[in-house]
Amino acid sequence: MQGKSNSRQRVIPDYEFENKKKRVQFTLKLIEGHLHINIARIGSMYPYAKVIFANEVWKSDPSQIGGTKPKWNQIYSFSLSNQEHYKSQYTTSL
């Protein structure tokens, strides 16, 4: 006896696929830094910040104030899918 096959097919709307691909937004606000050593021999140093989050790298503009207490007031947003969110790491450096 041959089994009865179910030939029904379900149409999956596009919005169901979009719901599974939710993006997570991570917003970084870079305000200021406090550096302990001034490495500029002559003049001022103009440091920048470099942030590595998951697979994305962001580099800020050099601080216009410079010196050992730089200020930026810059905002940057990283976006991740749900799968990337659980595997994410971040690294910062000045």
Task: Count every beta strand, where a strand is a DSSP E run of 2 or more residues.
Answer: 5
Average predicted confidence as pLDDT: 74
Termini separation comes to 73 Å
Cα shape: elongated
The major β-sheet equals:
3 strands, antiparallel
Helix content: 10-25%
Query: Any idea of the CATH class?
Result: Mainly Beta
Q: How are the strands of the largest sheet arranged?
A: 3-2-5
InterPro entries: C2_domain_sf
Protein name: C2 domain-containing protein
Organism: Stentor coeruleus
Describe this structure as you would to a colleague.
With 94 residues, this protein is mainly beta. The protein has two helices and five strands; from the N terminus they run αββββαβ. It has helices at residues 14-20, 82-87; strands at residues 23-32, 50-53, 56-59, 71-81, 90-93. The radius of gyration is 24 Å and the shape is elongated.
List the helices and strands and how they pair.
Layout: H1 14-20, E1 23-32, E2 50-53, E3 56-59, E4 71-81, H2 82-87, E5 90-93
Antiparallel strand pairs: 1-4, 2-3, 2-5
Organism: Stentor coeruleus
Protein name: C2 domain-containing protein
What brief labels describe this structure?
94 residues; mainly beta; Immunoglobulin-like; three-stranded antiparallel β-sheet; two-stranded antiparallel sheet; 2 helices; 14% helix; elongated
Summary, kept brief:
The chain has 94 residues and is mainly beta. The chain contains 2 helices and 5 strands.
